Structure formats: C-alpha cells, structure tokens
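so my prof wants the structure for this chain in the tokens format not the other one, which i didnt know existed until like an hour ago. anyway here's the sequence
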Amino acid sequence: MDDFELPHATDVLYTYGMKHLVFIICFLATFSAAKDAYAEIYKWKDKDGITHYSSEPVENAQKAKLPEINHADVEIPTQGLLSCSDHGGINCQAGADDDGSVICYDGFTEASPRYRFSCLTPKLKITTISDINDAGSFVVTVRNSKSVAASMPAVMYRPDPSSPEHKLTGPDKIEAFGVSEFTFIPKDADIPSVKPDLAQLEVRCANCP
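here's what i got, hopefully its the right format
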C-alpha cells in the first residue's frame, strides 16, 4: 500500500482561500452587472406614439432623464401625548381650550384629550357580575370613568343570540366617576342556570357615544 500523505497546511489554506476568492469575485461581478442594468433607463415611443421605459436599450431609444431621488431627515417627536393626570385631572366646568382640547384643574392647557370626547360623553364599563341568588337574581356593577354623568343608563341581558333582551333594574343616572348597581329580577325571563358573562350583557345610556 502506498504511503498516505496528509496535505500540507499551506495547501489547505490556499485551497480554502481560493474558493472564497472565486465566490467574492462572482458576487462582485453579479452586483456590478445588476447595478449597471439599473443605472440607466431608456425611453422611446412606438408607432402609435406611446412612450415606453426600459432598462434595456432598444432601437431609437434614448436615455431617460429621471428626477433625482431626494431624502430628508425626519424628526421623531420624543415627547408623548400629554394628559391631565399630573395636573389635577380634567376640569370639564372650565369648558374647552381654543384648540378644542381639555383644560386641567390647575389651568394647564397643553393636554391632548379632546373636550368633546372627555367632557360631553360618559364611559360606562361593567366591573363585576354577582353570582345568582336563590331567587334567581344577580347584580351587575357599572362604573362611569368619565367626568360627565351618564343619563338613562341601562344594562341589558340576553341569555343567547336568539332570545330577547331583558332590562335590569337600576338608577336613571350614574354620576361622574360614579358606580351603580343593576339587578336582574326574573319576571318574563327564565332564571339563568349559570352565572352570566360579559358576552350576555350590554350597558347603554342616552348620552353614551
């Protein structure tokens, strides 16, 4: 058997380096060709007078003069939207600022919330649903998170999409930032077999958005 001779380290490095050198040369050639192909745009008109553009030159084509692509630095604001949280809250009694935004209790006028949505409409949300008692009733707690009272609030209960709505008994007003309870009393409706969930309840009011 002939003696097996390991390749010299220099030969290995040379072969490895040549392979990478060939790859780099091919890559640069391809990049250069692609750059050249898109460097010039040609323009010509056909027999019907329609103007065409192409990256490949054709007969009677001329180099098109295209506008330069400009770029500009865009300044991103570093400060977020301001609120009245650090200024005592929204003072709806002060009315709207000149730009339609709210005015804070300490007189701050640079807050971002709009007066129309912050002071003219309440925002009601169901916070808790009680278990069903022995009489078949349950209580729904509703919170108003805005500084305007909700008039004629109503909580509607629909056991399933095909059944009619049932209005819960409750107050005719929820004060600004107030909390009220609405009670389901089974009259024309069947007693629920399980505790209702939010999907079966809906809260409304006359001045809600």
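also thought this was worth mentioning. Residues 68 and 95 are 51 Å apart (CA to CA).
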